[in-house]
Amino acid sequence: MNATLLSSEDILVREALSFSRQLLGVSGALFYWVDNRRQEMRVLDTLGVPTGFLEQYSHGMQSLDPMGVRRMLERHESVGVLSMAPTEQSLNDMRHYHGYLHSFGVIDTIDLMFWGGESAYGGIGLLRTLADPPLSMELPALDTFQRFLEASFDRHPHVRQIQRDLRLQHSGLSYRERQAALLIGMGASNQEVADAMGITLATAKTYVVRIFEKLGVESRTALAAYLSQLS
C-alpha cells in the first residue's frame, strides 16, 4: 500500500505496523484482514517485507505454515511464535517451510491475531531476520501487546462492518441475504439490489421478504434503523 494513498482509517494500520516493528525489533511487518469464509488472510499493508516473500507464501508455502490463518483460527489463538508453535506437519514439510523462510533471511515469525467475539477479523505478522536482535518479549507480554493493538481497531470501519455482518449471520440471514440487507439499508430499490447482485427482480423481492421476517422488521426504514444500531 502506498503511504500517499492511505485513507484516514488505514493510517491506523500503518501506525500499528510501525509501532509493532519498532517495539519488537523486527525487520518486516504485514497487516491483514481475515477472510473467514476462505480462512485466509488478505494483506492490506506491509513494511520491510522482502520482495517475493508474499508471492511464494500464497503459492505453496501457506499450507505449510504452522502459524497460518487457518490453523490459528482452528486453535482460536491470538498470539503465535513460529519457534514455539505446535506443528502437525511432517519433518520434510517443516524443512521445506524453514528453507523458504531462510531464503529470505527470516529466522522466526510472530503472529498477533485480532478477534471480535468468536471470530477473527485481522492481524499483524512480524518477520525476524538474522540482522534483528533476539525477541525481547515473552509470551505473557506479547499477549498484553496483542490486546492493546486489538482494542485500537475496535472502531475501524472495516471491523465494524465485519461485526455487523456476523450479527446478521447470527440472526439467521444467509450470505446472500446479508448482502441484500446491506444494500437495502443503504437505500437500494429492489431493482438496484437485483442489478448489484446479478439476480432477478423476483429473487430480490424474495430476499426482502425473508430479511424482514428473520429480523422482525416491517419496512425499509425499520431495516435501515436496525442496521444502524449494529454499527
TrEMBL record:
Pfam families xref list: GerE
Keyword line: DNA-binding, Transcription, Transcription regulation
Plastid is among the record's keywords: no
UniProt GO BP: regulation of DNA-templated transcription
Record-annotated HTH luxR-type domain positions: 165-231
PROSITE patterns referenced in this protein's UniProt entry, alphabetically: HTH_LUXR_2 (PS50043)
SUPFAM superfamilies tied to this protein: C-terminal effector domain of the bipartite response regulators
Name of the protein this chain belongs to: Regulatory protein, luxR family
Species name: Pseudomonas panipatensis
